[in-house]
Design the sequence.
């Protein structure tokens, strides 16, 4: 019993140190960026700009200002995990990297606070300690763009009116209410998709956005701002260098934590990923190692799909690096190269069939599809449990559906692709359960 408690404690501490070290890495990225002289002015631009999908913070602010924003958000999230009694597990790593990943293009150091406060109020009403809700507080930031909208330009459409007292009040009311409602809905979400969508918090993240847009805009006769992507130039040197160094260090750090060994990683790669916490099941070393291996795989995929489209150097902006970290977030809680590659194959195949045979308008390296793939990775347990073909089918279905979802929430929910995964799982999993056997059933001969 004492050894089990010691092991659990060491896992929690390893995760906390990993998250603090990751935040420090983002800060070093800001300091080392070529435009570090624009760090503070770039951050100010990010804080004072609308964040409706999809906004490239490299373009809106600066590369250094973007990394500083990510670092600040990361340090706050990591600090929350250090609160006494915080629920720290592989899911915490997922919540942290999803939040910091979106800090490259949607979340900022200003618009996140109302949602944290809302979860605190939820805990207070429930008479439970806030640290128990740390993971959910991070997941509650899905609608950060809506908070910026309330602060900066509601109800004025495209025109930014700047910070006003009424805007501050509206941002706080809307954000706190959404944060308050999120934990209960997030707890219910797995009942909808049976654990087959890793981005479970997408249910409240999109449905609450849909309701907010209906109330704040359509019911009151205001026009929802047109969804316009703001994408800047490509920075492959920055993206490649930071990601390669970061994920290589994850592999090295995981190897060291795992007793200077890769032992056990093969078993992790055979895991279905269904309701599986790698940090608890295999230890923090292998979980962190998987984050590194998985991250390098994602970066290689993005380089490959750009290369086959004719320009390997294009499209590496803040959105790209953000989705790399969003996609890798479940590397400690259900996703690994073994159950992700079928999703990638499905995206590539369906993209080329749609483009070459039917004149589709979204090639596989289009920014919207690159973002979509990030969240199709949430369907990894389908590939793990039912086989590669089911994963490829799920990925293809996600490709076909993902660009149709932003309209229902006005482009204010960052969990657009995660909600698409939820819809795919809701459609596909009942069919698989009815007509197919899981891997466990096949191996057991049932």
Sequence:
């Amino acid at each position: 019993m004492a050894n089990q408690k010691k092991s659990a404690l060491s896992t929690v501490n390893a995760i906390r140190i990993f998250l603090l070290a990751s935040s420090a890495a983002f800060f070093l990225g800001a300091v080392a960026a070529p435009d570090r002289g624009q760090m503070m002015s770039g951050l100010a631009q990010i804080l004072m700009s609308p964040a409706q999908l999809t906004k490239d913070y490299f373009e809106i602010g600066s590369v250094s200002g973007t990394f500083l924003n990510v670092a600040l958000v990361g340090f706050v999230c990591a600090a929350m995990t250090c609160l006494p009694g915080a629920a720290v597990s592989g899911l915490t790593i997922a919540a942290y990297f999803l939040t910091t990943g979106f800090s490259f293009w949607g979340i900022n150091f200003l618009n996140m606070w109302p949602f944290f406060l809302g979860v605190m109020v939820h805990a207070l009403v429930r008479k439970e300690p806030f640290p128990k809700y740390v993971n959910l507080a991070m997941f509650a930031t899905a609608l950060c763009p809506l908070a910026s909208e309330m602060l900066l330009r509601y109800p004025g459409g495209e025109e930014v009116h700047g910070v006003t007292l009424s805007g501050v009040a509206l941002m706080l009311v809307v954000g706190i209410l959404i944060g308050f409602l999120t934990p209960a809905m997030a707890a219910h979400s797995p009942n909808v998709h049976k654990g087959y969508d890793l981005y479970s918090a997408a249910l409240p993240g999109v449905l609450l956005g849909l309701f907010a847009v209906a109330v704040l805009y359509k019911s009151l006769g205001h026009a929802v701002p047109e969804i316009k992507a703001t994408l800047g130039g490509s920075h492959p040197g920055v993206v490649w260098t930071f990601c390669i160094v970061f994920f290589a260090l994850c592999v090295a750090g995981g190897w060291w934590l795992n007793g200077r060994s890769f032992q056990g990683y093969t078993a992790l790669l055979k895991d279905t990923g269904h309701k599986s916490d790698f940090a608890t099941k295999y230890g923090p070393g292998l979980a962190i190692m998987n984050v590194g291996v998985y991250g390098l795989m994602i970066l290689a995929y993005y380089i490959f799909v750009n290369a086959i489209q004719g320009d390997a150097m294009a499209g590496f902006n803040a959105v790209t690096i953000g989705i790399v970290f969003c996609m890798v977030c479940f590397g400690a809680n259900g996703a690994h190269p073994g159950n992700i590659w079928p999703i990638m194959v499905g995206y590539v195949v369906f993209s080329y069939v749609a483009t070459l045979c039917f004149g589709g308008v979204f090639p596989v390296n289009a920014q919207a599809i690159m973002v979509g793939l990030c969240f199709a990775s949430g369907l990894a347990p389908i590939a793990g449990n039912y086989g590669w073909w089911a994963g490829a089918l799920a990925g293809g279905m996600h490709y076909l559906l993902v660009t149709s979802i932003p309209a229902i929430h006005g482009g204010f929910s960052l969990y657009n692709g995660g909600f698409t995964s939820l819809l795919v799982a809701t459609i596909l999993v009942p069919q698989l359960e009815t007509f197919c056997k899981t891997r466990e059933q096949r191996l057991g001969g049932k």
Notes: The mean pLDDT is 92. The first helix runs from residue 2 to 32. The chain has 22 helices and no strands. The radius of gyration is 21 Å.
